[in-house]
Each structure stands twice: as structure tokens, then as C-alpha cells.
Amino acid sequence: MNLKKPLPPLDVAEQQRYIAQVHAENESCRIATGKSLYAFVQTFGCQQNEADSEKLAGLCEAMGYTVTQDVRVADLIVVNTCAIREHAEKKTLSIVGQYKHLKEQKPSLIIAVCGCMMAQEHRQNDVKFRYPYVDFVFGPSSLHRFPQLLCEKRRLGKRIYCPEEAEYTVVEDLPIRRESDYRAWVSVMYGCNNFCSYCIVPYVRGRERSREKEKIVAEVRELVQKGYKDITLLGQNVNSYGKDGGRAYDFADLLSELDAIEGDFVLRFMTSHPKDASRKLIDVMAASKHIAHQFHLPMQSGSDRILSSMNRHYDTEKYLGIIDYMRKRMPDVTITSDIIVGFPGETEEDFEDTIRMLERVRFDMLYSFIYSPRKGTPAAEWEQVPREETAVRFDRLLAVQKEIGKEKNDALVGTTLRVLCDGVSKGNDALYSGRTDGNKIAFFEGTPSDVGKFVFVTVERADAFALYGKKEN
Ligand code: SAH
Ligand code: SF4
Ligand code: F3S
Questions:
Q1: Same structural domain for residues 353 and 263?
Q2: Is residue 175 part of a domain?
Q3: Does the Cβ of 369 fall within 6 Å of ligand 1?
Q4: How many domains does the chain have?
Q5: 291 lines ligand 3 (CB under 6 A)
């Protein structure tokens, strides 16, 4: 089946029938062979994709698969891809390439590739022609069709290329298998309307659509009741929540309502767009019980000329106004940002403007990216900055930020901060690690019983990326 035309809408009840069908088939296979079937879900990209993968894993479980972390035992592999930069796409394709030998060893293995890359026709074609052992592909708009596609693949035995949905919708009530039992993602809106000139997201994730407030409140309340301690509300442009569909409430109203839920938890959100970072939102944060004093506010560039050609709808003055107001209302706020280096047309002078802004704002941390042309976006057609220049600027940016980050973290030495413990540190197994309310990484000597709990850590030293301290009893 090569689905050229958009499929008719599929509701969750129909969905359940496909889930039940695969479940029944898997169950008879288990009885016949005495073995369970395993599913491996692999995720690239942002938190939105991680949240989607928890739904894919939930669907796998509902269909009778046991979710595994070991790809070698898998009977079903689902690769959830990201298209944000070329590097992410190349890495994913190379990993899909490595699965060829698994299919050779186990011809019954089913491989699905989904996510943002698969919403692009040229990437679907890459899979079609270069990875003939991939069984079916679908984009983010069709995530809820995963059981249907798996069913059809098994029934027909042919490869399936799912087209994008005719209309992007919000699909509620999909099963979900959360990775953690104390940190949770809650998507509150999907898609993006902003069309920043460098960015692929609006093309692969469709238009903005918000979930109903009641659904979100119910989900967060249930998470808190189950003991979740750290809940992050997600959206590509989370603070434009509610603007679609002419609702009478906005993101700040949603936050107020969630903040009123009783319990011991911290609430975060990402990613905010400066054009929608209102005073009302900052006031709600400042007055709240549960909302972390943490703000990720991508600036992208410190040059007004570049911000305008990026189509960002703010200038440095407006950006600084938000930062100053945030610091006035919440002096302890942690502020992080995203910066793109080497955007088409960026001159040395524009870059120096960015450095000046870093020195003025003094971010706690930066996520910096070298500009990567994305097919189909306007900026990909513009004259590019030579690689060598971009590389020099990128290193300079990292060096400047490293110093600022270290100074910001040094200022916390001697203070005692609440930290949600994640367990033994991956890089240093003598220490435990966790996240402060400001979302900074903290290392300390902990015990297994601290995992998933709030502890208090007095900071003894810091580097640009983390705090090191002593747990208080
Ligand atoms: N919706 C969020 C984040 C989008 S993607 C926002 O608006 O801020 C995360 C980050 O990736 C962006 O903030 C941007 O800094 C970076 N990014 C997006 N497209 C890029 C591209 N083509 N090249 C390099 N970095 C990019
Ligand atoms: Fe991309 Fe801009 Fe939308 Fe963020 S706001 S997802 S950077 S288009
Ligand atoms: Fe990547 Fe898609 Fe997220 S392109 S950054 S996974 S929205």
C-alpha cells in the first residue's frame, strides 16, 4: 500500500481496534513460541519528540510488546527522528543503516521510521530508495496511526509510506509509557506558526494547536497524585498556548490553574518565544508556589538586523526589557538561551553584537548551534557564511559563555538549593546528580534512597556547567 492521498480522520476508538488486533496476534505468537515480542523505541531531537516516544512506547505496550532498551532482541524497532539540523539527520540515517544487519539476522523484524524527518518528502524518498529493509514510515501528524500502519504492514506484507494528515489535530487519550516515575513531560500545544526563516519545525509539525485546558489540568493533577515531582509543560512555542481557536484563556492562565494544584512538585515549561513572553506570565511565575524560577528564552542573535531577517518579531531592546523585568520580579531566576552562529548574512559586526548581548544579559547557560541550511526554508537559499568563519565565531562564543557561566555558578557557592535527585552520576559514579529548581546540574554524595526525591545541597564549588556540593541531612 503506497498511500498517496491523505487518509480519512481516524478516531481513538478505531485506533483501539487496531491495537486489539495486533495484541491478539502477538498473544497467539507468544503462546505458540513461548516468547514475548520486544519493541525498541529510539529517540532523536527535542523534548517534544521524547514525549512522542513515550506515546509510541505506550502504544507498543498496549499492542502486547515488551519495551526493551536492547535493540538486539527487538522484534519491532521504531526510530523517532529529528530534522532540525543536518547533523541530526545524518546521524539518524547512519543508525538506520546499521539496522540492516539486524534484519538480515532476523527477517521477521519490523522497522518503522517516524518523526520530523519523515514529514519531508525527500527524506521519505531517502528511506524508500536507500533503506529497502525499513517497513513503514510516518510523520509526527500521524503518530496516532502507528497501530493501523503496523497492522496494515503485517496484513499486506508491503512497505508503507504514510502521507501527512490532511488536517493536523490534537489526539487525546493515547496510552503512554513514561520513562521516569518522578519527572514527566506534558505537551500542552503542538506545532508552530512562526516560520523563523531558518527553521524546519513549522513545515514538519504543522500549525499551532492547543490541548483543552481541562485535559492538561487533569493530566498534571494525576501526575502529582502519582508522586511526580518535576513536570515540564511542552510546546514548540509554549507561551502562545491558547491563542488558536479564540480561547478566553492564555498560557499564564493555564499556569495559574496548574499552580493551584496541591502537592510537592515543581512546574516548568519550554520553549518560550520572546514575542509572547508577557509581563502577565512573569507575574504569575513570580507569585507562584510551584513554578520554577527558570526561563529558557531563545535569543538566536544579538543583532537587530539578523533578528529581522530571521523573522523573529522582536529586537534586542524588547528582549532586554523581558530579561530586566524577569530579574526584577524574580532576582534568583535562571535564564538560558539558544544562539545560532553563522546565519546567512551574519557579519563580524553582527556577531560582535551577539557577544555584547551575552555580556549584557549574562545567561546561566547557552545552547549554541552552527546554522544548518534546511531544505524548503527561506534562509537555505541565501548566501551562506563560509564554514571557517562560522567555526571561529562559534569557538569564541563558547569561550565567552564559559566564563559567564562559571561566574554565575560561582555566585551560588555557599547557598543551599533544593535538588531533585536523579541517581548515580553517569560520568562519576562516586557522586549522585540532580537538578536544582533553576534546572542546574548539581553533584553531591547521595544514597540510593535519595533518587526521585528532593534533597537540599549546599554548593561548595562550581564550574561553567554544574554545581558541586554537600547534601544537608
Ligand atoms: N521552538 C523553539 C525551539 C526550536 S528548535 C524556539 O522557537 O526557540 C531549538 C533550537 O534549534 C532553536 O532555538 C534554534 O536555536 C536552533 N535551530 C533551529 N533551526 C536551526 C537551523 N536551521 N540551524 C541551526 N540551529 C537551528
Ligand atoms: Fe522554529 Fe521559530 Fe517555530 Fe521555534 S518559533 S520552532 S525556531 S519556527
Ligand atoms: Fe527536531 Fe522535530 Fe523537535 S525537528 S527539534 S524533533 S520538533
A1: no
A2: no
A3: yes
A4: 4
A5: no
Separation CA 263–CA 470 (nearest Å) = 26
Q: Are 38 and 75 in contact (CB under 8 A)?
A: yes
Give 414's pLDDT tier (boundaries 50, 70, 90).
Answer: very high
Q: Is the pTM higher than 0.85?
A: yes
Kindly report the average pLDDT of the chain as a whole number. Answer: 94
Question: Quick check: CB of 205 below 6 Å from ligand 3?
Answer: yes
Residue 302 forms part of a structural domain: yes
Q: 198-242 pLDDT, tens per residue? A: 999 999 999 999 999 999 999 999 999 999 999 999 999 999 999
Q: Which amino acid is at 87?
A: H
pLDDT tens column, 108-134: 999 999 999 999 999 999 999 999 999
Question: Where are the strands (E) in 180-288, listed by range?
Answer: 183-187, 189-190, 209-210, 230-234, 266-270
23 and 146 both lie in a single domain: yes
Pocket probe for ligand 1: among 117, 369, 382, 387, the residue whose CB has the most ligand atoms within 8 Å is 369
Cα–Cα distance measured from residue 357 to residue 371, given in angstroms and rounded to the nearest whole number = 19
Structural domain contains residue 279 = yes
200 Cα nearest atom in ligand 2: 1
Q: Which whole number is the average pLDDT over 23-50? A: 94
Together in a domain, 260 and 129 = no
Give residue 458's domain range. Answer: 416-471
Q: Does the Cβ of 420 fall within 6 Å of ligand 3?
A: no
Gyration radius from the chain CA atoms: 23
CATH of the domain at 273: 3.30.750.210
